[in-house]
Write a structure and sequence with these properties.
The complex is a heterodimer of chains A (265) and B (153). Chain A folds into 2 domains: 2-65, SP0561-like; 91-264, Four Helix Bundle (Hemerythrin (Met), subunit A), CATH 1.20.120.520. Chain A has 11 helices and no strands. Chain A has helices at 2-5, 9-15, 17-25, 40-46, 51-65, 91-119, 125-149, 160-185, 188-220, 223-240, 243-264. Chain B is of the alpha/beta class and 153 residues long. Chain B has helices at 59-62, 66-71, 88-99, 117-129, and strands at residues 51-56, 75-79, 105-111, 136-141, 147-152. Chain B is globular, with a radius of gyration of 16 Å. The chains are: A mainly alpha (265), B alpha/beta (153). Chain A binds chain B through residues 88-92, 94, 222-224, 226-228, 230-231, 234, and chain B through 51, 73-74, 104-105, 107, 133-135, 137, 151-152.
């Protein structure tokens, strides 16, 4: 089993698709990953399952790969129910999770906005560019830059999961460039397609960060590093001023007012 | 069993099943003097920019590896929220540690008994009065020296 633990997950799933299905049952979504070069041992470790769950998962994976091998089944006490793990964050990481909430409020509106653009007589360029401004300034400059310049520096930047996050940020920037190009040309289909692609990408990206990446980084931080990161994030926030988050929160509130009314009309 | 859990008599001398190594000597991780909250000064050099452990008096006696696991790398102040007098001074000292000594983090370590939570309350009040904000962690120690919880507050 040792050499399987050190194999890339994509290779394992390709040679034994059952492993992908088992991982999926445990909420470990490696199958659709576009990269897949995480080692199996890292994939399991990063999800921080409780010991009984992890032992059962490893048993099932080993049996799937080596059906003829005599593998000892882990003994599970059926009377001992493990409570679902509550995710807790250190203060600087919690601040980043809270920033996700505002971004998710825009993501929730994107399908309605995309439909509105598609059905309007003329492309509402101002609306599209204001959404782009939120994404580029709040989501990217204010939030993603703190991840890239501060948070990710406390993890192994070569780790697959961090590389996937960088790739997601770049892919998202590409979609937004396409949205702007669509707005300039008045191409509704281009705007809609890329806005929806951005929504899909960021929804999955934020879920991965909130549930897997952030808790994983948090578990590795010492108390002193938490204090240092808290200070660095506060300095980064102070450098843009306290008006910036307030301005974009108001933008989202106004947008919700406009489009929730559209939906209920 | 009745009365205050903080002073109730409990004997766990029969509890010898705990694992641990008796070999090897552990050096003290204490890097300062004094340590009692009334005696320390927030202006002391060993507090400036440091990670601080504010420990209830009983915690160091309860935890087998107090020095190795919690004191190492930190400066310390100790107090008893049940027996110490003039505790408003403690609140002011916490505020001064945050604002003037610009400490990096504050870890408040308390026993599980209800009266001990008063120390966490003092830390919160001091932090609320301060202009700077810092991460504060609360560690609760069980009567038999086990860690019951460890969380950022």
């Amino acid at each position: 089993m040792e050499n399987v633990l050190n194999k890339e997950i994509k290779q394992i799933i390709e040679s034994c698709p059952e492993v992908g299905r088992i991982l999926d049952e445990y909420g470990i979504g490696c199958v659709p990953c576009s990269v897949g070069s995480c080692l199996l041992k890292d994939v399991v470790g990063i999800h921080n399952l409780d010991p009984e769950k992890e032992a059962t998962l490893m048993y099932r994976i080993e049996k799937a790969i080596y059906p003829d091998r005599n593998v000892a089944k882990p003994v599970i006490d059926p009377t001992k129910k493990s409570a679902p793990k509550k995710i807790t964050y250190s203060p600087p990481v919690k601040k980043l999770v809270d920033e996700h909430v505002l971004i998710k409020r825009l993501l929730a509106l994107i399908p309605t906005i995309a439909d509105y653009i598609e059905t309007s007589m003329k492309v509402d360029k101002d609306l599209v560019l204001r959404c782009v401004d939120f994404i580029r300034t709040y989501a990217d400059k204010y939030h993603h830059m703190k991840e890239e310049d501060i948070l990710f520096k406390y993890a192994d930047e070569k780790a697959e999961i961090i590389q996937v996050m960088y790739k997601d940020h770049d892919t998202g920037r590409g979609y937004i460039r396409q949205v702007v190009e669509g707005a300039e040309k008045g191409n509704k289909a281009q705007i809609k397609q890329n806005m929806l692609a951005y929504q899909e990408l960021l929804t999955q990206h934020i879920k991965k960060e909130d549930e897997i990446l952030y808790p994983w980084i948090d578990r590795q931080l010492s108390t002193a590093q938490v204090g240092e990161m808290f200070r660095r994030c506060n300095e980064a926030d102070a450098s843009v001023g306290e008006e910036l988050p307030k301005k974009y929160e108001k933008f989202i509130v106004d947008l919700e007012e406009k489009f929730l009314q559209e939906v209920t009309k | 069993m009745s009365g205050c859990p903080g002073s109730r008599t409990i004997d766990f001398s029969e509890n010898t099943a705990q694992e641990g190594s008796e070999t090897g000597k552990r050096p003290s991780q204490l890097r300062q003097w004094p340590i009692q909250m009334h005696l320390v000064s927030p202006q002391a050099p060993y507090f400036q920019g440091k990670d601080i452990l504010l420990a209830a008096d009983c915690t160091a006696f309860s935890l087998g590896d107090f020095h190795k696991d919690y004191l190492k790398g930190k400066s310390i102040a100790i107090a008893c929220p049940k027996l110490d007098s003039d505790q408003e001074i403690y609140t002011e000292k916490i505020k001064a540690l945050i604002d003037d000594a610009k400490i990096n983090t504050l870890t408040v370590m308390i026993m599980q008994v209800p009266c001990c939570f008063g120390l966490a309350q003092i830390a919160k009040e001091g932090a609320e009065k301060a202009t700077r904000k810092i991460p504060i962690k609360q560690v609760v120690v069980g009567l038999e020296g086990n860690i019951l919880s460890e969380e950022w507050i």
